[in-house]
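--- STAGE predict ---
source: upstream dedup step, 1 unique chain passed
mode: sequence only
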Amino acid sequence: MGGHKAGDVASEMAVLQIGNYWKETSFLNVHEASEWLDEHINIENRRIYRVANNYKDLDGMGTTIVTAAFIKDEIVIGNVGDSRAYFLDEKGLNLVTVDHTFANELRINGEITEEEAKNHHQRHTLTRSLGVFNKLTVDFFFLKQTDDFLVMLCSDGLTNGVRYPFIEEVLKSRDDLKSKADTLTQAALNNGSTDNITLCLIEKTKMSALNQKKGG
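--- STAGE serialize ---
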């Protein structure tokens, strides 16, 4: 987590451990996948929590996480913290996840406006993250796959540096995925983002689906 000790250690622990176990899985539906993700994100949360408490130089470390699983014609998104998932289809770009920050919770509760939340002094203060508490609640969101869609998973290092309309414009462009990722990353850096920037783009098109069917 930005501003916290050993956030890079915590994020690497979570990604490598969960990623390695994920390779051995096979699910019939997104609900099975969400149960597995919930269990293993919580296992990793407790592991990071124990390590942080046992080593003084790692005390206070933590990480956010956002995941996406694509099974048959559905998608399940999971998140903890302020790393985000966006979903783009013919209807436009939508933010799927909800930021677990103090300012956003004030907004949800109607105590401040959306505009006030954007500039609130605690807009980056996390209310939920891996490694901080022994128990953790993971939010899950279920989506239907369309013929053409794009999913973007990203850290707040990106969204702190670029605004929603620009993200939508870039993701809707005809550029390939790498070019889109490079454009967004460079724009965030140019706009002064100082946090780590991580993003992942996953795309499905009618053409790719047709080729998949032809290939068996």
